[in-house]
Amino acid sequence: MERFLQSPIKDLIGRFPALGTILEDYAIGCVPCSVGTCLLRDIVEIHNLSPGDEEELMGRIAAVVAPGQAVAIPRSGRDRAAGASKVSYSPPMKMLVEEHRRILRFVALIPALTAGLDVESGEGRERILDAVDFIRSYADRFHHAKEEDLLFACFDEGLEILQVMLEDHRRGRVCVQGVLDALGRRDAGEVSRNFSEYGEILTEHIRKEDEILYPWMDRNLTTRQVGELFARFGAVDETFLEAGQRYEAFVAGLEARYLDAKAEVVR
């Protein structure tokens, strides 16, 4: 069993497809993961399962990969209560989660934004470029830069969980470039497809960060690191204050344009 514990989870799912279903039963989404090189041993700690769920999960996995063998369940030396239903974030993580809320508000508007997309008129093209500006300036240069330059720097950059998140960032950037390339060709279908793919990537990415990455990081950061991150995030926010207000107004304007119009149609 030990050799399986040291194996990348995606390789194991490839050899034993039933593992994907088992993991999903515990809200561990390794099947759609774009990287999938986390070791099976690390899955338990990263996802912070309760002791009971941990034992049950490993027992079910063992029955698939090593039937009939005794299993030594990996322990991470945790002395906290695991598997709590409500996540309590440290102050710097709360800041990132709040930024996620604004990004998700924008993502929720993508279907309305791309319905009957206008790539010909100046007004229609400007609306697309404004959306790209929000993604690149707020979601990426502001929010993702906080993660990549400050938060992730507190950990080993080779950690697989960080590589997964960085790959999501990269895929999102590819989609945004795809929007611009398609806009240059006046290809409304490709603009819409790239926006939609971006929304799908970010929705799942934010779920992984809010539910898995940030809680795991909070469990491993020292009190001093938390304080330093909070101060450094605050300094970044100060420099971005005016722009942050502008992007909040941008999202609120889209909501007024599309959500209020939808409510009016319903009435």
Characterise this structure.
The chain is an all-alpha fold. It folds into two domains: 2-65, SP0561-like (Orthogonal Bundle); 91-266, Four Helix Bundle (Hemerythrin (Met), subunit A) (Up-down Bundle), CATH 1.20.120. It is 73% helix and 0% strand. The protein has twelve helices and no strands. The longest helix has 33 residues, at 188-220. The model is unreliable at 76-84 (pLDDT under 50).
Supply the key terms:
Four Helix Bundle (Hemerythrin (Met), subunit A), 12 helices, SP0561-like, 267 residues, 0% strand, single chain, mainly alpha, 2 domains
Query: Span from first to last CA?
Result: 61 Å
How many DSSP helices? 12
CATH superfamily annotation of the largest domain: nmb1532 protein domain like
Low-confidence segments, given as residue ranges, are: 76-84
What do the pLDDT scores average to?
86
Largest sheet: none
How does the helix and strand content classify structurally?
Answer: mainly alpha
**The CATH class of the largest domain:** Mainly Alpha
Question: At CATH's second level, what is the architecture of the largest domain?
Answer: Up-down Bundle
Proportion in β-strands: under 5%
Radius of gyration from the alpha-carbon trace, in angstroms? 21 Å
Helical proportion, percent range:
over 70%
**CATH topology name of the largest domain:** Four Helix Bundle (Hemerythrin (Met), subunit A)
Shape: globular
Number of domain units: 2
Query: Can you write the helix and strand succession as a string?
Result: HHHHHHHHHHHH
How many strands in all?
A: 0
